[in-house]
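**Backbone shape codes:**
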Amino acid sequence: MSLKQGSSLMGLLRLQFVVGVFGFLALSTFSQMNYALSYACGVLLMVANGWWLAIRIDKTVGLDVESSQRSLYAGAVIRFVSLIAGLLLAQLIGLHLLLVAAGMFVAQVVVYVAALLGFKLEQDENRTR
């Protein structure tokens, strides 16, 4: 099974997407469509970035340590440049960059909280053994 198809990754991306939809609906309820689109753009940038990272990690399976590191660093540079391009595109189409950043931040908080919960569950499992 590849990393892209792993249930934990798909669950995380799904959770980020749900948080993005919730924020979009909340902002659009108050007739703030430009803000809602800006927020959704930020969340989608982070979801795409996470998906792209998962694909890159999946490709490093079976490589030696040096090759894996080179692959991951090259991928990080490409993801960073594409993120800057996404922010530039958001600016060019008139999205509010503060709300794009807020969407990116919320999507990353979802990853952080999910990781903390995962570590806690793992720690609890280790204690019961």
